[in-house]
Structure formats: structure tokens, C-alpha cells
Amino acid sequence: MPTHKLFLPPLLLTLVLACAPWLLNDYYLALANKILIYAIFALSLQLLVGGAGLVSLGQAAFFGIAAYATVLFSPEYEAANLFFVLPAALVCAGLYAALTGALVLRTTGIYFIMVTLAFCQMVYYVFHDTSMGGGSDGIYLYIRPEFRLGDLYTLSLDSATHFYLYSLALLALSWLFLSFLMRSTFGAALTGIRLNEQRMRAHGFHTFQYKWVAYIVAGIIAALAGNLYAMRDGYVNPELLAWEQSGLVLLMVILGGKGRLWGAIAGAVALTLLQELFQSNAIMGSWANHWHLSFGLSIIVLVALLPNGLVGLATRRMNLATAPSVKEER
């Protein structure tokens, strides 16, 4: 498929989504912003799971580190410069990804999953049991960072519209970057590693280096989502680093389908909306108090019915629509 035809639908969808601030009320705009943030988070894990075949339960570490760094590097009673805070948050998460990746990538299979979980829990207890990040109570970001170019230009993100458009732009850039990455020689090497790592080694590829770079890139993209999350809520606590957060984003990738990048986005949309549905007292009534049960049962049913995720369902429908009609011979 020509490149312009491949990227035209996402571009048109982005332009449509950019109209949301003028079509949605404050509640639904905040919900849409939450979906955008989790979509970036899911894309980061999709690079590992769908790209290199690395199932990680430690992705929340980079998400949480960046969220804490965003608050800790921001002055308490004045707006920080986003051109400083954002790189600082990405560097902190990237360094942790580089350090831990050099260790965890020496394991495979279930051992890789458990070691990534262990490193994530280690960061969780660092922030939970020390006063560095406010302990179990967390810390607050009172004023969102803003774009500043000296005294020449300032763009505040306090506006819900500005912050939504900023989040949408970062999601579009993240998807575009990963799309080009997976279509490059590097992406082809990752696919080869996922399919048969031993054969790739036999062909002379240093598979560890490819996986290490992918692990760092995934950590930095997760950090981008963590930075947005901290600015959106103005509050971070150790629960952002808990294993449940890693499990949630892994469910997004599985539900959406690990074959395509947009599957991670579809999974983030579906799972966030399901959470919102089951937590709604207006819709679920008293069942909203037990939303975890309804949510868990719905995930089991969806995974059972859609073994290839939402991507598989969409692909199957496209194949049925394009298949030539065959008349039965009698």
C-alpha cells in the first residue's frame, strides 16, 4: 500500500478528534483526554509485545517515574517551563529503562515477566516508603507547566482545550514515530527477533542490542504518558507504579490486538470506556460499587470471544467485505 494511503486515514481521524473541545462538555473532554494518555501508554508496551515479543509487567515504572519527576522538577507555586520539565522526566525514565533493560533482557519468558515486575515494585516501594515523593500520600502539582521561550512567547496548558490538543498532538507523533520505526530496518529486525531470535543470531544480528534499544524507547514513550498524567490530574501517588497499572496497560494491548499499532489505541479506548461504564452509578446503579467484578467478567468474555483482539475482528470484517462472492453450484 502506498505510504500516503497508509497515513491518510489516521491524519483525517486526528483532524476529526481535534474538533472534540468544541463538541464535548467538560466531563467528556476530560474522559477523552484520559483515553489519549492511556493510548500513548499502550503504544509504548505495544512496541515490546507486538514488536519484539517481550511481555513486560514493569511498564508502570517508567510511567510513574516520569509523573513523579514532572512534579518534583516543578516549582511549588509557579508554572515550570515545559521545555525543561518534559526532557527531565523523559531522561529519568529513560535512564532507568537503560539500566534495568541491561539486566532484565538477559532473561526470557516467564523469568523476564517476573524480573520486570520486580524492578517495577522496587520503584513503587522507594516512593511509597520514603518521603522523597510524599510517601503513600503522594504529592501535588499545583500549577501546570507551560511553554516558555524566554520573554518572547508563553503558552499555558491550564486551558482544557489547549491541554487536550497538546495530548492529541503527542499521541499522533508517538504513533507516527512508531509507525516509521516498525517499517524501518530496525523494526524488521525486531519482527525477526519476535518470530525466531535464534535464527536472527545465526544471521549475525546482535539481538540483545536491538531489544535493549526497543526497551529504552518503550520506556521513554511510557514516560511521555506519565508526564501528561501528572499534568492532567495535578496529583501523583505510588499507585501509578503498582503492578495493577502494568497489568491494565497489558490488557489494553491484548484486548486491542498485538498485531497492529492502532490495536493498542483501540484497546485503550475500549478498556477506559468499560471502566467508566461500570463505575457509573447512573447506568449501573448499586452495581457500580462492585465495578471490579463486572469489569473483570467483561474482560474474560471479550478475550474469549476475540482471541486476536479488536484488530482481528476488524481484519476479519475487512476480508469478508473484500472477498469475491461465490455462487453455490447446484
Automatic annotation (TrEMBL):
Matches recorded under CDD domains: TM_PBP1_LivM_like
Subcellular location field: Cell membrane
Coiled coil (UniProt feature): none
Protein name in UniProt: Branched-chain amino acid ABC transporter permease
Entries under PROSITE patterns matching the protein: PROKAR_LIPOPROTEIN
Transmembrane regions listed in the UniProt entry: 6-24, 36-69, 81-105, 110-127, 163-191, 212-230, 295-315
The organism of origin for this protein: Alcaligenes endophyticus
Taxonomy, superkingdom: Bacteria
Membrane topology: Multi-pass membrane protein
This protein's UniProt keywords: Cell membrane, Membrane, Transmembrane, Transmembrane helix
